[in-house]
Structure formats: structure tokens, C-alpha cells
Amino acid sequence: MFLDWRVWLFFLIYFVAVVLFLKRIERGPAPAESEVNREEFKNVSVSAGELILGIFLPFLLNDLVSFVASFSFSKMPWRLVSLNFWVPIVFSLVSLLYALIVCKKGGLWPLFRSTSPPTIPPMLLKGFFLACATSYLVGVSYGGLEWIFQQKPQVRTPPVFGTFAPNGLMAVLHILAKFTIIPLVEEIYFRGFLYNVLKTRLPMLAAAVLQAILFGAAHRVGFLGGILYFLFGMVFVAAYETRKKLIFPVLVHGFISAIALMPALIMEVQNFHMPASNWEEAQTTPAWIESVPPAWVKKKEDGMKQWQYAIDTWGSQGSKRWKQEINAFNAVCTWFPEDRTACAKAKIGIVWVYFYLNDYRRSVIEADRLIQKYPDQEEQVAAALLRRGIGYLLLQELEKSRSSFERVLNEFSQFEKPRDEAERRIKWLNGIEWKGTP
């Protein structure tokens, strides 16, 4: 695969383009009003040890964060939400603090000092267009890499859903941090600190390529995903070099993140839902669930086609409108109550949707209803018991969680996937009980 001519052509085109672009920047004069005194940054005392630690700091932090997160989650799984919110914030602040300490003589400040309010609007417009062009370039590169390597590059999609229910504050804060705090800190660290320090020891092209490689590697997305982040790193350093103002790559980075987060923002609006805060509330039906199949749900020939239609139209294979998907699942049992297999599949779909919206109490209640009404549909009952156990685990009701997992092992061990998952969850419970719960 690595000897395929398309691979070499792909890298050759990008390498030549990057070299020509950076050489043009290196030879071209910077605008007078934005010129930064490079000697001022060269006078910042950064030892070789500090530079080496700076290069490896993102990787060390990643490993430390992964260890702390895995330990804390194995001991207290219900803390997943707060972990996924605070980990990137703490990671960014530690990186920023290190850069500021190392450049204690003020080497980072000149990178912002030449920015004045009248210069911001033109940079906003140019930054937006550059972000759109970069997003298109990376999108084309994504398709090219998939075609060449016959596999999809790994990229970090916003983990808002599955971490935070689309219920307001936490999801919104997470999204805002992704295109405000995170771009600012990453640009200060990778372009403001790391790139400028490398440039005092290496030619500009070598410093640019090295910081882009480190930027891609620090995101831990594998080789193919790293190529895409390498492209981002080169664009950001080019944006910095064209204007000699760090605010410009910060804006470009923020716009790119905002473009990437648009689908999550749309999903936030489409799927707004407040999880039940207690078991009494969980017994009530949300106002957005209709008592009869709505007019926008088309009736199909049989129950299985109706179930598949719900998934393909509004579920993970469709528009990802989870509330509409529940209404479409309910239509399966309304129109085809005799098809017990299709009805059970629709009910487990409802269990999954509530779980995905972090409404664990309603998910548990729907799982109980499925177990009671469709005991003959053993595979779906096993799946419902598994979801029930995980829901109770995240609600910190450990005994009920354990009993659900044990039922999967004792009564439905013929189904490999739920059986293996139940075994793994019981091991977690054993670890939690041995260490003690808070």
C-alpha cells in the first residue's frame, strides 16, 4: 500500500505546495504596520531542555489525562460528563501556563501587541474565507486519503452528544470552548511559543513542518488523521507568517472549529430535551411525544420496514432527529402490533434514544416495559437488561445495576455481545465496590 503511486503523488503535491508557499512568505516583506521585532523574541531565553519538554508536553499531558480519566471513570463512571468537560480545559491551561513561564521575559506579548481594533474587521473577513478554503481543502484531502488507503481517516468529532444531553448549559459551554478557548490556547502554544522557539534554531520551513507534525501527533488521531491535522498546522503557521499577528491564526482556527461544530449546533437545537430529574418525572411522557403517529411518518408495508424506515429517516443513518425517531418508533407498534419482533426492536430503539439523550431514568423505564411486554423476544430483552444496568450504574444505583448484568449472564448468555459487555461491567462494579464509593 505504501508503494502505491497515488500515495507518493498525494504527498508530493502537498509537499511542493507547502514549500513554494512558505518560500514565498519567507522572501516576501511583511506589512509594515504588523512587523514584529523578531530579535525581541530571540532574546527570550529558552534552554534546550525547556524546548524539549515543550515538544513532549502535549504528549505527556495526553497520557496523564488518559490515565486519570480511565482511573476516575473505572471508579466513578457517573463522572464521565464532568471529566469530558474539564479535561480539555485543564489540558489547554497547563500548556498555556508552561508557554508563559518559559517565555517569562515577555516573548509572547509582541505577537499580540500590534493588534488594534481597526485591524480586526478585515482579519475577520479574511480569516473566515481562509477557514472556508481550508475546510474545503481538508475535506478533499479526507476523501483523497480514504480513496488511496481504502480506509477513513480518524478525526475528532465533537463529543457533545453521548457526553452531554442536548439540554442547554453544559453542551453549549462545551461547544463555545471548542471554538474560543481551545483555538486561542493551541495557537499561543503551537504557533506563538513552539514555532517561534523552533524558528530561532531552525530554518523557517523546517520549523513550520516540525510544529505541524507535532500539532497533528498531539491530537492522537492516527497516521491518516494526523495528515489532516498536519495540513491545519501548516495553514495556521502560514496565516501567522502572512500578517505577523498571532490573532489571525487564532481567528482562522476558531472559524474552522465553528464550521466543524455547525452540525452539533444544529443537533443541539433539533434535539433539545431536559432529562427527568427524578423517577416521578420519568414516568411522565415528554410533551414532544405524540399520542398517535404524526402525519410526517409514512406507513410502510410491514413492521420491519417501518422500523428500518424510522432509523434510516431520523436516526443515525438519517437526519439524527432523535425526538422524531421516537415518534416513528412508536408508530411501529401502533400500526403493526402483531409483529412482536419489529415492536421489540422499536422499543429497544426508544431505550437507546433516551440513553443517548442522557435521560437515564426514562431509558430504564422503557427497558422495563420492553422486558415485561416482550419476554419472548430474548435478544431484545438481553439488550434492554444491558441498557438498564448501565443506566442504573450511571445513576449510582449499583445493586440494581449488578442485578441487571447478572440476569444477562444467567438467562441470556447465548447472545455474545450483551454477555461480554455485562461481564465487563460487572468487573467495573467489583472494582468500584472494592475501592469504595463516594
TrEMBL record:
Query: What are this entry's molecular-function GO terms?
Result: endopeptidase activity; metallopeptidase activity
**Where in this chain does the record put each CAAX prenyl protease 2/Lysostaphin resistance protein A-like domain?**
171-258
UniProt KW Secreted keyword: no
**Which InterPro entries does the UniProt entry name for this protein?**
CAAX_protease, Rce1/LyrA-like_dom, TPR-like_helical_dom_sf
Q: Which residues cross the membrane?
A: 6-22, 51-73, 85-103, 124-144, 164-185, 221-239, 246-267
GO terms of biological process kind:
CAAX-box protein maturation; proteolysis
Q: Which one Pfam family would you cite for this protein?
A: Rce1-like
Q: Which SUPFAM superfamilies match?
A: TPR-like
* UniProt key word Membrane: yes
Give the UniProt keywords, A-Z.
Answer: Hydrolase, Membrane, Metalloprotease, Protease, Transmembrane, Transmembrane helix
PANTHER family reported for this sequence: CAAX AMINO TERMINAL PROTEASE FAMILY PROTEIN, SLR1288 PROTEIN
Return the protein name. Answer: CPBP family intramembrane metalloprotease
Record the organism.
Candidatus Manganitrophus noduliformans
Q: What is the lineage of its organism?
A: Bacteria, Pseudomonadati, Nitrospirota, Nitrospiria, Candidatus Troglogloeales
